[in-house]
Amino acid sequence: MALSGTDLGAFYNEQVSRSKIWQVIGASAVGTMIEWYDFYIFGSLAGIIAPLFYPPGNDTFAYIAYLATFAVGFVVRPFGALFFGRIGDVVGRKYAFLVTLLIMGGATAVIGFLPTYAQIGIAAPIILLLIRVLQGLALGGEYGGAAVYVAEHVPDNRRGFYTSFIQITATLGLFLSLAVILTVQNLMSADQFAGKAEGISGWRIPFLISIFLVGISLYIRLRMKESPIFEHVKSSGMTSANPLIEAFTKWKNLKIVLISLFGATAGQGVVWYTGQFYALFYLQKILNVDATSANYVIACALLLGMPLFVVFGALSDRVGRKWIMMAGCLLALLTYLPIYHEMQSAAGSNVVTANSQANPVTGEKSLTPMSRNAEGTLVPAQKVLVYSTFADFISNSTAWKLILLVLIQVVWVTMVYGPIAAYLVEAFPAKIRYTALSLPYHIGNGVFGGLLPLIGVSIIAQTGDIYAGLYYPMIIAGITFVVGSIFLKETHGHKIWEEVSDVSART
Length: 507
Known about the structure:
Elements: H1 5-16, H2 21-44, H3 46-53, H4 59-75, H5 77-90, H6 93-113, H7 117-120, H8 123-151, H9 159-187, H10 190-194, H11 204-222, H12 228-235, H13 243-248, H14 251-286, H15 291-305, H16 307-319, H17 322-347, E1 353-358, E2 365-372, E3 378-380, H18 390-394, H19 397-417, H20 420-427, H21 433-449, H22 452-463, H23 471-487, H24 496-506
Helix pairs in contact: 1-24, 2-6, 2-8, 2-9, 2-11, 3-4, 4-8, 4-21, 4-22, 5-6, 5-8, 5-21, 6-8, 6-11, 8-9, 8-21, 9-15, 9-16, 9-20, 14-15, 14-17, 14-19, 14-21, 14-23, 15-19, 16-19, 17-19, 17-23
């Protein structure tokens, strides 16, 4: 005899409290962290790798071309979301994100072995582009699988809290990538790390380490069972024959996709990338902060801010998801310009513009931060916060001012990102959940957010205005706040197990 939806929901929540929730979270989180680690080492090493894979003579072009290649990986993420989302809704959540893990890890490892432009010519940037496409497709399927897998294992009244640990993994992946990069940098000279000396190029090591990380994650994931909600949906014959058509051609579902995109994930994407990636770019390439010091600033801010993902995820279980995310977008819109002005002041940087300058010796062009001398003439800006030792760095008041200013941005990140997994899972029905939530998430993050570094650098290179790159994330965050405030429905309190059990009882 079939239980009612309410009875099944209560039974499930009672059972899940005694299940291995943390094992489920760990299996999902480790893999997702590794995939983000792979992405971040690619982005964090842009300044070093870019000149190696593109024709010599114009570092500005190489840097922008590298960021464009980086952006391609984000642009293709929605296609990966559609492909792997369908697999997740038809075959199973577990198997979809097992495949994405292998593709992502394998592609990243190849970069560690990839010959440079000097070795194989134009084939180097072409192969690099193809690898980024594979990485983007894989990541397009990874997040949806991890978020849905965890959400379908945990009690309804604590979904925001438990899924927030998946949200931490993206930032943890960035933190891990920075930690590995800084460790390798401290073990060798700058020339050895950049591949300008004999022996292994140090920048390759972070890519090669991913081989071991993927192996560990794969072992953990293979031991896990399928999501209980998906098993119930499949055994009851409730799976969708074509989740793509059902998700994107039926207006009731498509409407939720569009509102989720423009009223949540687009703003979340740009706030996320501004507070982490763009902040790093601004410190290194605009304010001319020493690269090692800039990495430490970001790493310290992330370490201090990561617990807030869980704080806001748990808070969303009490007060709702919507207004926490909207508040994060609004605060970003209102504070980015003053924060970045203050970052320049705190760093003691006298940069007034950035433009493409030719090296007087080599003739190579690069995006150069410029200041004015006593005569008012534009000259290349001096390095600030030059790194010597970590002890000196951590005792420097300038470093702590910059850490605090980046930390404020990370707080906005945790507000928009902490509750969003729970919101997306609750917004869509179980039989199309993987497919439907993956598309707005990856368009918001992959397109709106992923294009931020490229758009920001390009705007600054064209205008010379060191703050002009901020207008893009501010506009998108503002649009998201308006659309989300008006149209986004609160999902807090939705009982996803009762949703499928009610259908089962009726059938």
